[in-house]
Amino acid sequence: MNDTDDQPRHEGLEARIADAILPTLDHLGYELVRVQISGKERPTVQIMADRADGATFAVEDCEAISHAVGAVLDVADPIKGEWSLEVSSAGIDRPLTRIRDWNRFAGHVATLELAMPHDGRKRFRGIALGADADVVRMRLDDGAEIAFPRSNIRRAKLVLTDELIAATAAPPTEN
To answer: Which fold has domain 3-89?
Structure first.
């Protein structure tokens, strides 16, 4: 599998925006985590990204992405009328949108919401066990291990825990 196979899944307008900005983000050294649009009157386009080099995401990264992506979206004009752009890092309790996210954070607590119910349920919580091109795997709080089709996942995210904070903390600097 190559990196283009491991992009977050979007639909409709969010997919068109993601397709428009991916080359720019890649060129600047960033990876797309999520595009989300909220609001009706004056929509907000939220771009969530990671640094491709794994370094800590800073305010300067938000500024660089905002300027470059704003210009791309002004030309592509995917939203008629006024809209706002918001750029952020994925944060500690990040959404799990890509295969690499599920594999990187295997062993941590996550929540998942499905588009179509599985055994009468749409919401699940448990330990992320990893993913491949077709499914994500979780060990639920009751101990059951389930594989969910990636195509049926509406949203998934990490749960903020002490273990997650410790695992994502920057290594201490030496004096």
So the answer is: GMP Synthetase; Chain A, domain 3 (3.30.300)
